[in-house]
Amino acid sequence: MEKERVYTYQGFTFRSEAELAEAKKEAEVVAYIRGQADLSNVKTVVKLYNRLIEKGTLTTELGITFLKELRSRAIDSGVVAESSLESLPTVEKKKPEPPKVVSKDRKLMELYRERSRNLAIVVAMLCVVIVVLFAIRLFGTASPFTDYEQKVLDEYAGWKEELTEKEEALHLWEERLSAWEEELAEREAVLP
User: Fold this and answer.
1) Gap between the Cα atoms of 3 and 75, Å rounded
2) 4 Cβ contact list (under 8 Å, min separation 6)
3) Would you say residue 98 lies in a domain?
């Protein structure tokens, strides 16, 4: 079992850094009060004590020690009865929370949830990309494929024109050849 770390400040011990920080803040408040208030005046001490208790400003051992000092000054003066003063607050020591025990099943479930969430996000993004690509293809006029398609159509149109011209030339040759064959057949018929 690991030993608990203890922090010390102005002769007081604290179990956590948070308690230590709180005590340091209260030490600054106490130093300010000591510098500003006239602690020799009993009325000032009683008012200050009651106000600090009312607001709950001082809650650490260091602050409560200062409140005890103010209380004893007021009571020792004989002007104020002990029963007329508010009682001192108690120091609540916070016990450190025990570390949470997480089972393997719980860890696996958390891991599964995280991965499934990430996977769902990726799938949603891919679906959006696919929809956008279809929309671009259906409604877009300037897709990269349009240029290639137009080039192929232009080239095919050129081939078609060229093929039509060659067919016409071939028909002319056929007609000439037919005419020559007829002429030849007539000449052969005239020859003995």
Assistant:
1) 42
2) 15, 96
3) no
Closest residue by Cα to residue 38 from 73, 72, 9: 73
Alpha helices in the chain (DSSP H): 17-36, 42-55, 61-76, 104-139, 144-190
154 is a domain residue: yes
Give the Å distances, CA to CA, from 160 to 141, 155, 164, 167, 168.
26, 9, 6, 10, 12
User: pLDDT tens digit string along 30-87?
Assistant: 888 888 877 788 888 888 888 888 887 777 888 888 888 888 888 887 777 777 777 7
The pTM of the full predicted model, rounded to 2 decimals, is 0.46
Q: In this structure, are residues 67 and 52 in contact, taking their beta carbons and an 8 Å threshold?
A: yes
How many domains, in total, are found in the chain?
Answer: 2
Per the structure, the complete domain to which residue 26 belongs is given by 7-84
- Token reading at 23: 């005590």
Residue 97 burial (CB count, 10 A) = 6
